[in-house]
Amino acid sequence: MRTALSKRESGASRKPKRGEVSALDRDLVPERIRAAGKIATCPFVSCGDTDSRYALQTMSSPPPVARRRGRPKAGEAVDAGAILDAALRAFARHGFDGVSVATLNRELGVSHNLIHQRFGSKAELWRAAVDHGFGRMVRHMEGVFDPTISDPLEQLRLAIRSFIVFSAEHPELLALMDIEARQDTDRLAYIYETYMAPMYGGIGRLLEYLIAEGRIREVPLRTFHFLIAHGAIAPFTLVPLAEHFDARSPMKPRAIQEHAELIADLIIAGVRTDAGTQVEAHQENI
Q1: What is the pLDDT of residue 2?
Q2: The CATH number of the domain where 215 resides is what?
């Protein structure tokens, strides 16, 4: 049975409806998404400049917030993005129950009640951090598809490759899902209904089209998701284990690009039918 957030955790504020962006993070969600009142639908993400600043092993200690000497007063302006980045890493590493807001305040070097005054209860902080992190994914998702690529199968390859690169930049999103997906809770439902279901709507339609055209074999959307989201990008959240297999860091830009290219090629080769291969050969000869 789905475990509801306690009244104490959820506070008195209204729970956002399906597809609605939390009011606590509306300033961090794209303007046109906020205007629409819901998250845009688009499969996967585009890639950005790759680095390892979000590697999972750094999640235990949030980066310091630039400020003048001494603790800021509760009413002083503190960068919301820095607070939410730190909160997201903390929830991804320790889980909802394991995060102490008081400890987070101390690590950020802010007054003991600043986070509570800015975001409310811990449940509201969690939702704001999720909106912040997955909202960032939405902004990347908007530009993933290349209009110069006419072959839907190549668009699928591009989506897979781009998603892997983005996930290397933000491994805290997968780490959070690894924790939240273990139990059927309201928190899991919020992530799935607000972000995952809309995101996979487009990729699901693309898979259905390619299957109907005989380009790829039948691939359940669930299988496709777990192959990529909890398989291909696992080295970015399990860095120590990955380095037991290969001493080179999986978080290096070149390693990320090579990994993304290889995974995209392997998946496309695995799902492509003979008809799909013939279409590609024909296009290459044109």
Answers
A1: 45
A2: 1.10.357.10
Question: What sign results for the dihedral spanned by CA atoms 235, 134, 97, 104?
Answer: positive
Collapsing DSSP states into helix, strand and coil, what is residue 216? strand
Taking CB atoms within 8 Å and a gap of at least 24, the contacts of 227-231 are: 227/267, 228/160, 228/163, 228/164, 228/263, 228/267, 229/163, 229/167, 229/174, 229/177, 230/174, 230/177, 230/178
Structural domain for 183, as ranges:
39-45+53-65+75-285
Confirm whether 268 is domain-assigned.
yes
Kindly tell me the burial class for residue 200, based on how many C-beta atoms sit within 10 Å of its own C-beta (0-12, 13-18, 19 or more).
Answer: buried
pLDDT in tens, 11-67: 444 444 444 444 444 444 444 334 333 333 344 333 333 333 334 343 444 444 444
Of 91, 112, 94, 116, whose CA–CA distance to 103 is shortest?
112
Average predicted confidence (pLDDT) for the chain: 78
Burial bucket for residue 199 (CB in 10 Å: 0-12, 13-18, 19+):
buried
Residue 120 lies in a domain: yes
Domain assignment present for residue 2? The answer is: no
CB 228 within 8 A of CB 267: yes
CB of 177 closer than 8 Å to CB of 234: no
Which residues, 6 or more positions from 275, have their beta carbon under 8 angstroms from its beta carbon?
A: 213, 214, 215
Q: Is residue 28 part of a domain?
A: no
The CA distances from residue 111 to 193, 222, 231, in Å, are 34, 44, 40
Total number of domains constituting the chain: 1
Residue 76 has which token pair?
Answer: 């002083």
Report d(CA 22, CA 46) in Å as an integer: 24
